[in-house]
Amino acid sequence: MGIQIAPSILSADFARLAEDAAAVSNADWLHVDVMDNHFVPNLTLGLPVVESLAKAAAQPLDCHLMIEDPDRWAPGYVEAGASSVTFHIEACRAPIRTAREIRAKGARAAMALKPATPIEPYEDILSEFDMVLIMTVEPGFGGQKFLDVCVPKIRRTRDLVAKHGLDIWIEIDGGISADTIEQCAEAGANVFVAGSAVYNADDPNKMVETLRTLATNASK
Ligand SMILES: O=C(CO)[C@@H](O)[C@H](O)COP(=O)(O)O
Ligand SMILES: [Fe+2]
Q1: What letters, b where the CB count within 10 A reaches 16 and e where it falls short, cover 34-43?
Q2: How do residues 43-71 score in pLDDT, each as one tens digit?
Q3: pTM metric for this prediction
Q4: Is 13 exposed, middle or buried (0-12, 13-18, 19+ CB in 10 A)?
Q5: 7 lines ligand 1 (CB under 6 A)
Q6: 155-180, pLDDT tens digit by residue?
């Protein structure tokens, strides 16, 4: 389950997505934020862009759906080429069915939790998922300040995963930088999304490696 770094293309140049994907060639994943202006107050991209990016990028796509009705849309993102599809548990009417559809189509399935959503009500369905994404900002925008109030939830999620003997990754998303990544790794996260920290850096690939080293050392 090693440490993995997933730069968010929300902070990339949308007219140069292929080049900006190549600028983070050391990354394990490309994190793609899909926003519908209903679940969150922002609008980004959808299936056609994911389909093109999946062909153009060397890294697998980690699609984070911040949309209403993921029950209807999530499986389509696997068909478009995503290797991991995350939907918000707050927006999903049938999370078990949706996770099973994602997995049946060959991708990893993940549930995302907003900062005020607890993990405990979902303990019994954890085994349906490959990953839990814990938001460390309110979803909708890049460049926000990390909410350290979310860190205990990382630890509680890691404890629940261990209690059930599951092989589930924990991804953290929002305000992750060289200043905030270590406390998340220490608490049990192993997949780290970083948008502004990576794409605002002079050398995005070097920042990927810096984040990887900090997280690896902190998780020991
Ligand atoms: O899902 C989201 C925002 O809703 C994220 O993936 C952001 O894109 C992360 O950006 P930074 O906080 O790292 O700048
Ligand atoms: Fe995201």
Answers
A1: bbbeebbeee
A2: 999 999 999 999 999 999 999 999 999 99
A3: 0.98
A4: exposed
A5: no
A6: 999 999 999 999 999 999 999 999 99
61-65: long-range contacts (C-beta < 8 A, 24 or more apart)?
61/29, 61/30, 61/32, 62/6, 62/29, 62/30, 62/31, 62/32, 62/86, 62/171, 62/191, 62/193, 63/32, 63/34, 64/31, 64/32, 64/33, 64/34, 64/112, 64/133, 64/173, 64/193, 65/34
State residue 1's pLDDT score. 75
Residue 40 CA, closest ligand 1 atom number:
4
| Distance from C-alpha of 57 to C-alpha of 41, rounded to nearest angstrom | 28
Is residue 173 annotated as a catalytic residue, yes or no?
yes
CB atoms within 10 A of CB 122: 18
- Ligand 1, atom nearest to 195 Cα: 13
Our answer on whether the CB atom of 139 is closer than 6 Å to any ligand 1 atom is yes
CATH, domain range 4-218: 3.20.20.70
> What's the rounded Cα separation, in Å, for the pair 5 and 198?
10
